Each structure stands twice: as C-alpha cells, then as structure tokens.
Automatic annotation (TrEMBL), chain A:
Residues 1-78 form the 2Fe-2S ferredoxin-type domain. PANTHER family: NADH-UBIQUINONE OXIDOREDUCTASE 75 KDA SUBUNIT, MITOCHONDRIAL (PTHR43105:SF13), RESPIRATORY NITRATE REDUCTASE (PTHR43105). Keywords: 2Fe-2S, 4Fe-4S, Iron, Iron-sulfur, Metal-binding, NAD, Quinone, Translocase. Residues 78-117 form the 4Fe-4S His(Cys)3-ligated-type domain. Coiled coil: none annotated. NDH-1 shuttles electrons from NADH, via FMN and iron-sulfur (Fe-S) centers, to quinones in the respiratory chain. Couples the redox reaction to proton translocation (for every two electrons transferred, four hydrogen ions are translocated across the cytoplasmic membrane), and thus conserves the redox energy in a proton gradient. This is NADH-quinone oxidoreductase. It holds the Pfam family Molybdopterin. One of its GO terms (cellular component) is membrane.
UniProtKB/TrEMBL annotation, chain B:
This is NADH-quinone oxidoreductase, E subunit. Belongs to the complex I 24 kDa subunit family. Gene3D superfamilies: Glutaredoxin, NADH-quinone oxidoreductase subunit E. CDD domains: TRX_Fd_NuoE (cd03064). [2Fe-2S] cluster binds at residues 91, 96, 132, 136. It comes from Pseudogulbenkiania ferrooxidans 2002.
Length: 785, 166
C-alpha cells in the first residue's frame, strides 16, 4: 500500500494505482477526456494535468503511477494554469457549433470549457475542417471537425469490441478518426462509442436531431432482448421513448449495452404497433373495442373446450414476456383446465423434462463465469446470442482465462481460444462425450454414460485438461445446444463433466426471461417453483399434434419456433388462434383470428429473471400506445370473464407478490438432472441445417427496429457450407441454389465457408426469407437452382 | 496481390518477432509492398500504396486493416498519393538551407518544370520537400525513391543526377 496526499487529503492506495484512481477513491474530480476506467490509458488529451510536488512539470493524472509519499495538488495555480492551457488548445480547432450540435447539453467538452476555459478565444486563424465519415446506420460520424482525438472510440473497438474497426489516420493536425476506407463499423456493440465520445463527433444516427438532451426524462429499465438483462436508462419525451442508454451495473453489463439493447427502441414506435383489438370476420380484419374482442376470445375458448375438450387448447408464450405475464398466462390456462403451456418454442428436445429438478440457469453468476479460469462454451453463437457476454469472456481471456469452444461453426470470437472442436450438429454429442471421456480418465472417475465407443481427440483432451487443471471452471450450453435435437444428452454430458471436474455448469438463457418462465411454471411439466401439475403437451407436441385453439402470448410462431413450417401449418389448421401481441405482424394477420394489443416492456411494469437468476423489476416508462394494455391486465380480465376465481389483482405488485409468495428463486435454480443419458455415437451423416437466429431477429421488438435492420448483420441471409458440400452438390460458390426442408424451399446463394464442418448447410432461421423452411437443425436438401 | 518474392521478404520481417506479434512487422511489410509497387508500377497511381494493398498486408499479418492504414498514413515515406517513377525528396531544413538546400530544390523545380509537391505530366518525376536526413555535413542532400541518398547536390551534381534518372 502506498501513501498519497491529494489536495491535503491523506489516503493509502494499492501498488500500481494511478493518481486518477486515487483521486476518484476520495471523490476528487480531475477533468479528463481520454481517460476511461474500462479502457487502456492513452494520456493524449492532457486535460488531467495536475501538480505533483517535486516534479518540475505538471503530470497527467491518468498515466502517473502513485509513488509513496506523493503529494498531489489538483487545484493549485500550476495545475489550473496547465488545465486552462490544455483547454485553450483543445478549443482551437473545435467548431463553435454547440447550438446545432447533437451533443449539446451532455457534452464533456462543453461542461469542462465552462469550468476551465476562457470566455473568448485568442485564436484568430482558420480552424481545420475534417470531412464526415460513414460508419454505418447506427453511428453518425458526420461532424468530425468536432473530434478532439481522445481515441476512446479506437480503444473501445480494439479492446472491448475485440477488433479495431476505427483508427486514427495521418498525424499531427491532419489526424482523423475513421473506419477503414469503405468499411462501416459492424461490431455488435458499436453503439457504445456514442456514449464514449466526449464531444459531438460520434452521435447516434437514429436519435440525432430528434430532441435535446435536457428535454428528456431518464427512467430505469431492463433490456428485454437477451438473457443477460442489461440495465437500461430509457429516455422519454412526450410519452415516447426517444433513446436508450446503459445504466451501469458492474455485475451484469458493466457500463456497456449491446446495439440490440440500444437501438431496438425504434421498434417500440414502429408503424406496425397494434393500437386496437382486431377480429377477423370472413377473412377480413376489423377493429373492435376491448369488450367485443374479449367476449369473442371467451366465446372461442369456451366453444373449443365444449366441442373438443380442454386438451384441444394450446398456450404458447414468449420468454421475452415479463415474469408476471408468464405467471398469469400459466395460471389462467391451468385454472381453465388447460395443461398445454410452454415457453420453449425453439426447443426441439424435451427428454430432460422428466429428470429436471429445477429451473435451468447459468449455474453461477455472470461475474463468476467471467472470472472462471477455464470456460467451455458448447453450441453458442456467442456474439449473436449475448453480445456483451462474448465481450466479457474476451476480457476474461485477456486476464488469463482459458476459453474452450465446442460448436457447429468456427465463428470469429475475436479472442484467443485454448482449444476448439468444430463439428456438425450430429456429432456435437460425440464431441462433448470426448471431453467427458478425457475428464473421466484424468480424474479416474466413473460416469453413468457409456463412453466405450468414444475416441478422444487431441482437442478434446486439451479441453479436459483445461477444465480439470483450472481452479475454477464453467461449462455452459449456448442457444445452439439448447435448440439442438439432443439437448438433453448435451445437458447430461455437461452435468457429468462438471461433476467429475468440479466445474460449474449451466445454460446461457436464450431470452430475457427464460429463467423466469421456468420459475413461474410456464412449462407443461412443472408449476410455479416446481409445484406438481398435471402434465400437458410441450411446445413441440402442441405443434406436431395440432390443437384446435392456440393462445399466443407475445409470440410470432413463424419467427419464434424451432420448425416455423410446422408451426405455421398448425396455426392455420386451428379453429381459432388468439394472439396477445404488441405488433400487427404479417404472420399473425394471416393465421390468427383475434389480436389483442398488449404493452411491450417499456409500457408495463414487470420483471425479468436473468440467466444468473437475478430478479430485476422495472416500471413502465411511457403510457401504452393506443388502446394497448399490459398483458397481465388482459389476462386478469380474461380470467374474470371465463368465470375463474383468483383473478382479482389490482396491480402488478399483487401478481408479483403472489408468485414470489410461492417459493424462493435461489433454491429453485437447479441444472442437475435426476438421471443422465446420452447416445454418444454420431448420427448418420445426412446433410443438416445449422439455422441460428440472426442477431437482430431475436425478438419482436428488434425485428422492427429500422436502423438495426439496415445493418450488415441484418442483411438477407445467404447459405454457407464447406467446400466439400458444394462439390458434392456440384455447385460453385455464390451460385443460387434451392434449399429444401419438408414441403418448403427457398432460393438463396450458397457460398463456400471454411469455418463450417462437412455435412452442414448454414442458413439463418427466423428471417422473413427463410420461414418457409423447417427445423433449425434438421436435414436439408440442396437442389440446383 | 504481391509477388512471391515480396511475400518471402515479408515473411523474413515477420520472423524477426515472436509468432503472436506479427503486428510488429507492419512497417517492414508496408515498405516491401510499396517497393514492389514502385518498381513494377507503370503509372503514378500504380506506384503508391492503395486501399487494396494495405488491406492485403493487414490480412497477411492478421491485423485489422485500419491498424495498417494508421501506420501507412502516419509515416510520410509511405506514398499514399500517386508518385512519379523518380521521387526526389530534397532536404530543406535549416543546415541544408544554409548550404544551398532551398536553392537545390528550386533548381530542380525549374529544371523539371514542376513545383514542390508536384508530379511531372509524363509521370517520371515527383519533387518533394523533406525533413532532416541526418547528413547535414553533406548538405545539400536529396533522396531518390526513399532509398538512395545523394550528397553535395550542387547544380552541376543535380544535372548529372537527373541525367542518370531517365
């Protein structure tokens, strides 16, 4: 520990601290631009100059390590003069366009110029002019003359984003911040450079010129897009969400948010929002009032249950719904006598249900995962599923963690991998079994799974060595593993590996509230907190054995299902489809019979349980649009109208109190299966599809965010396959082919991709151009175009 | 994009650094790439570094293209603008200027009919001002094509040199 005195305040700081760290720890503010606690030290703005006794010149606080007995003055004459001098230089070339600058009112340069600058400039000469740059549809770099060259954006893309997409070209007064010529900034977390930019050089393209920072009110919320549950500040003006910023939470999102969290708000204000209840009569849609629509729903449900029995009704809910909505929907269904409730629309393997003993979750906190010395990620398109978690693992690798990957494609994770096994979906179970077999050998343990047929490859051995050798280790299953037709086997194997190696294991929750949905019993086999229920059909069975009526909560089955082809067919064959939705979706208009407008997360109070089992509550930030109502209220009124008891809630807090009163979250999280089993032989080698959900198709809101949809990540998907697949099909890379699954087929370009294993065609699911196809990991045929 | 010979030279540069620090070879690699383009380029545009070459070098070294671009634009001996077959850089810093460096530049300018910073219309010569080349005792000095240093460049010596550069 070192002793230091800052402005007369004595304190001790650990070895290696900088003067800036020390000053922050006692609440002394030192002005700065280039310094950022999460980025490397650049010391190029010079704004943080302070006087250090015995040093002849002022020193930059951000880059000066504390030495024992150091005496620092941040407000002495020397320090003030140095800071004022730096400010004068920074303002020499900075345009005086604050009145038309989007950053005005929340600009660090503006603020510090008031504190440290002069009221007039002595500079008489011409100011430099820098032409604007094109960084893509999210980040605007139109006014680069404003740039003060702090290089925060450059360091962010390199250090946090993992790939330097922005650079500083030229030198001295010709320096310019730019992306590589002709390239845009495509990082999935690129929007953070807008927050980092201390001036108005990088601004938000969708937001700019729409309002002034001081006209906005700040409301806390939680991201509904992925299982991380990033904390948000939603900024609101005149009952409209204008922009979304991160709310710092070191345990979850640090000070970042992904572009999906930041720019999805455009979807909330989209023209596709459903404003009034709608009923289909003779193939035509008519607006209706709530009373008529609800009576229609009640009549429909009663009719189907009278004619075909309660079992003829299926309830499919989106895990992007709030915990209260999911609780209400399962309560409504079960009170009415319907046991077919499920949120797992994209799941294709439900064999683990019987052995499951609790809600599936991450198996540790996010911080614990990121600090584990060895991590094995199985079947995860990490950068699409949880962009911030991928970034966090990247930071972990820099700090010495070993990252291992078993996946169906060799995606660029922009970090160093300890070992990887890239296999086709059909060999995924075998790959994980190899690791288990190696772990069994290392630990001289025994496994209940028969591993005789498994041959351990060198990479599997490396993974096992890494897991067993590390002090703390984690095995996590990503979305690909969870949607995989052998999920239960993968979970069994992960459980065995974890048991023998002492690692933690869990799943990377797919959606904002997957864990919440598990907890409140939005599954056919378990009730609230695992209470026993009479089992119903799961999502797959409800589609495979079509029901006569479906209730869809926040769900568009063509985008949200494992097999959109079968799901849409099931919807079309039903007598009635009742959709509670925030959007007038094309698919719903086609197969639904009544649309009830519900409020998205920004317009209702609720809660999400993130992947680490953390309950995060939030309030609505604006009033519901049009006649939309919070789904819990709609479900409550439906309960009343169906004559069910226990639906007398007057507030969302009452709903929350009821489900919370039935159990505790922490003890209900449990990944351990009562019995494990896996067939470790690779399946027959048919050509199979790898159909992941694209980054900006994950949920109903981001699908309608126009700026996100203009990014390269949201481009119309093309198919990819290994060269051997192309050769076998006799097509050239880039040729248009017909891909066929079941009755559906699409014409797409097929490109060679060395990152894919043999026997695989990769084509994204959940995209309007591919929804006619079948299962995400099912066989697929290539035909000449 | 680059010849096998150039790639072999780049590999030699890469081999000077640890395997996980290929980035360190970026200056050498850009120099080699530029040298190949200068010696084989037919037009001024083909003799300088361009986006494709920089991206190629970056990919070859497995670094982000913009990182290589930063380096290429930072150092002024990497030609980013079209350049003549002979790039003549005359030192005009103080010691050279006192010994006739400015005169040398003006003399060449008059002789070739191009101003400092320009390329002759036939694409043969580019005349540039340079900073100290560390040979003040030999003033005035000039540099031909980055690599060949010419000392004591009196008007006679310049005439002789230009006669060689045809």
């Amino acid at each position: 520990m070192l002793e230091i005195e800052i402005d007369g305040k004595k304190l001790t700081v650990p070895q290696g601290s900088t003067v800036m760290d020390a000053a922050h720890s006692v609440g002394t503010y030192i002005p700065h631009f280039c310094y950022h606690k999460k980025l490397s030290i650049a010391a190029n703005c010079r704004m943080c100059l302070v006087e250090v006794e015995k040093a002849p010149k002022p020193l930059p606080a951000c880059a000066t390590p504390v030495t024992d007995g150091m005496k620092v003055h941040t407000h002495s004459d020397m320090a003030k003069k140095a800071q004022a001098g730096v400010m004068e230089f920074l303002l020499i070339n900075h345009p005086l366009d604050c009145p038309i600058c989007d950053q005005g009112g929340e600009c660090q340069l503006q603020d510090l110029a008031v504190g440290y600058g002069n009221s007039a400039s002595r500079y008489q000469e011409e100011k430099r002019v820098v032409v604007g740059k094109d960084m893509g549809p999210l980040v605007s770099a139109e006014e680069m003359s404003r740039c003060i060259h702090c290089t925060r954006c450059v360091r962010f893309t390199e250090e946090i984003g993992g790939f330097q997409e922005i650079g500083m070209a030229n030198r001295s007064e010709f320096s310019e911040i730019l992306p590589f010529l002709g390239k845009t900034v495509d990082s999935e977390i690129s929007g953070n450079v807008i927050d980092l930019c201390p001036v108005g050089a990088l601004t938000s393209k969708p937001f700019r010129y729409s309002t002034r920072a001081w006209e906005l009110s700040r409301r806390k919320s939680v991201s509904p897009h992925d299982g991380l549950g990033a904390n948000l500040i939603v900024q609101v003006k005149g009952n409209q969400v204008m922009r979304v910023l991160p709310l710092e939470n070191e345990d979850i999102n640090e000070c970042w948010i992904a572009d999906r969290d930041r720019f999805s708000y455009e979807g909330l204000n989209s023209a596709e929002r459903l404003q009034k209840p709608m009923i289909k009569h003779d193939g035509k849609w008519h607006e209706a009032d709530w009373q008529t629509a609800l009576e229609y729903v009640v009549k429909g449900l009663n009719g189907v249950s009278r004619d075909h029995g309660k079992d003829a009704i299926g309830v499919l809910a989106s895990p992007h719904s709030t915990t209260e909505e999911l609780f209400m929907v399962q309560k409504l269904a079960r009170s009415f006598g319907v046991n077919n409730v499920d949120y797992r629309l994209r799941r294709s393997d439900f064999r683990a249900d019987a052995a499951q003993q609790g809600a599936l979750w991450l198996g540790s906190s996010i911080v614990e995962l990121a600090s584990a010395k060895s991590v094995l990620v199985v079947g995860s398109t990490q950068r699409q599923e949880q962009p911030l978690l991928a970034s966090r693992l990247r930071q972990a690798v820099k700090k010495g963690s070993e990252l291992n990957v078993i996946h169906v494609a060799d995606d660029a994770l922009l970090t160093k991998l300890n070992a990887k096994l890239i296999v086709s979906p059909q060999a995924l179970v075998n790959a994980l079994a190899q690791v288990l077999k190696a772990v069994v050998a290392i630990k001289s343990g025994e496994s209940a799974i028969d591993l005789a047929a498994v041959t351990v490859s060198a990479d599997a051995q490396r993974i096992a060595d890494s897991l067993c050798g590390a002090e703390t280790a984690s095995v996590v299953l990503g979305n690909v593993a969870q949607h995989h037709p052998a999920f239960s086997e993968l979970l069994s194997l992960a459980q065995e590996i974890a048991r023998l190696s002492g690692a933690r294991f869990g799943v990377l929750a797919e959606a904002a509230n997957s864990v919440g949905a598990e907890l409140v019993g939005a599954v056919p086999t378990r009730g609230v907190f695992g209470a026993a229920v009479s089992a119903g059909l799961n999502a797959q069975q409800m589609i495979a054995e079509p029901r006569k009526a479906y209730v869809l909560l926040n769900t568009e089955v063509e985008f949200d299902s494992y097999n959109p082809q079968a799901a849409v067919a099931a919807m079309k064959s039903a007598e009635t489809v009742i959709a509670l939705t925030a959007f007038k979706a094309e698919g719903l208009l086609d197969y639904a019979d009544v649309l009830l407008p519900i409020a998205p997360f920004s317009e209702t109070a609720g809660s999400f349980v993130n992947m680490e089992g953390r309950l995060q509550t939030f309030n609505g930030v604006v009033r519901p649009q049009g006649e939309a109502r919070p789904a819990w209220k709609v479900l409550r009124v439906l309960g009343n109208m169906l004559g069910l008891s226990g639906f007398e809630y007057t507030s969302v807090e009452e709903v929350r109190a009821e489900w919370q009163g039935k159990g505790e979250i922490a003890p209900s999280l449990n990944n351990v299966l009562a019995s494990v089993s896996a067939n470790v032989q690779p399946a027959a080698s048919a050509l199979v599809r790898v159909g992941e959900v694209p980054l900006y198709q994950a949920d109903a809101i981001c699908r309608r965010a126009s700026s996100l949809q203009a990014t390269r990540a949201a481009a119309v998907p093309v198919a990819h396959a290994a060269q051997s697949v192309l050769d076998a099909a006799g097509v050239q890379s880039g040729a248009v082919v017909v891909l066929k699954q079941g009755e559906g087929q699409v014409r797409v370009a097929l490109e060679a991709d060395a990152a894919l294993p043999a026997g695989v065609v990769r084509l994204a699911t959940a995209h309007p151009t591919t929804i006619v196809l079948g299962g995400m990991f099912d066989p697929i045929e290539i035909k000449q175009g | 994009m680059l010849s096998a010979q150039s790639l072999a030279l780049i590999d030699r540069e890469v081999a000077k650094y640890p395997a996980d620090q290929k980035r360190s070879a970026v200056m050498g690699a850009l120099r080699i790439a530029l040298e190949e383009r200068r010696s084989t380029g037919e037009t001024p545009e083909a003799r300088c570094l361009n986006q494709e070459v920089i991206e190629f070098v970056a990919n070859y070294l497995e670094i982000p293209p913009v990182a290589a671009y930063e380096v290429a634009t930072f150092y002024n001996m990497y030609d980013m603008k079209p350049v003549g077959k002979y790039k003549i850089t005359v030192c005009t810093n103080l010691p050279c200027a006192l010994s006739g460096g400015v005169n040398a530049a003006e003399y060449i300018s008059g002789k070739l009919g191009i101003a400092i910073g320009e390329t002759s219309t036939d694409g043969m010569y580019t005349l540039l001002e340079g900073e100290c080349m560390g040979a003040c005792g030999d003033a005035p000095v000039l540099l031909v094509n980055n690599h060949s240093m010419c000392s004591f460049m009196t008007p006679e010596a310049i005439d002789k040199k230009l006669a060689e550069l045809k």
